[in-house]
Amino acid sequence: MSSIVATWAFSGPGVVTAAGILANGGGALDAVEHGIHAVELDTRVTSAGYGGLPNALGRLQLDAALMTDDGRIGAVMALEGFRAAVPAARHVLDHSPHSILGGDGAAAFATGHGMVAATDTAQLLSPHAKKRYRQFRNGEISPGPHRDHATMPHTDTVGMIARDADGRLAAGCATSGMQFKAPGRVGDSPIVGAGLYADEAGAAVASGDGDQMLRFCIAFLVVEQMRGGEEVQLACEAAMRRVHAADPKCQAAVTGMSPDGGVGAAATHGGFRVVRWRAGTGAEDVQNEEARAVSETTWKHSCV
Ligand code: ASP
């Protein structure tokens, strides 16, 4: 059965887009790419694509990745000059002999495949992002995990997994990364095994403080437990328990999908939400649920 799950409530419109693609017979990879792209272009979302908060130099620097259950990968990191990164990740998946392209090379590759770069970097910042950057420069806000509750609660990486009618799985994610990060900083999101993973045993996508989460290879950890026979919800919870036991301050979240389209989700702290859709319901009929947390405390603005 076709199925979709995505991180955070703000991904709802993206899930509707992806559900429309699956409902019309489209494939999982197209659904995930276009679903994520819809979130990247939503200016209310301050943590991915246009609307995302910039790095310490005031430049929007994006990460995105896609992975299919038959092992195709495309990722871009520290991409500058564009309002969205997931279309560039798709071009890498489809057209590059490489799996990940970064920085200027990623930008040149995207341009070479028809993506139009902005002529002026200021065009890449939404009015809200410009205002927040001015506040950062004035010392009113500090760098750090970008939970910018001024516009929407729990803004974070958009991660999405889809299973299509043929039973294929695809996973993807996109983020503008930590707000006001050091130029060139890359978190877990575009790293296969960390921010996303998919193979015949299932798929997973993660969100949270990438600098802290990278060492746990969270997405791979979840899928690896499913390969060992664990149920998807319990696999997500086990991964979050491992993170929390090693570093109780680290805020991490993950959602996973089993090969039959079953969904699980868990977080180290309360407040993580996922958006779900299943075939047999209308494309607009998405469900927004809070995931189980392995600790009593709730998700805070900063991991440090
Ligand atoms: N994991 C992403 C990063 O660290 C952002 C997030 O999900 O909050 O870049």
TrEMBL record:
Ranges in a coiled coil: none
InterPro entries (alphabetical): Ntn_hydrolases_N, Peptidase_T2
Residues marked Cleavage (site): D156, T157
Entries under Pfam families matching the protein: Asparaginase_2
Top-level taxon of the source organism: Eukaryota
Cellular component GO terms held in the UniProt record: cytoplasm
Active site per the UniProt annotation: T157 (nucleophile)
UniProt keyword annotations, A-Z: Signal
GO molecular function: N4-(beta-N-acetylglucosaminyl)-L-asparaginase activity
Signal peptide: 1-18
PANTHER family in alphabetical order: L-ASPARAGINASE (PTHR10188), N(4)-(BETA-N-ACETYLGLUCOSAMINYL)-L-ASPARAGINASE-LIKE (PTHR10188:SF16)
The name this protein goes by in its record: N(4)-(Beta-N-acetylglucosaminyl)-L-asparaginase
UniProt organism field: Chondrus crispus
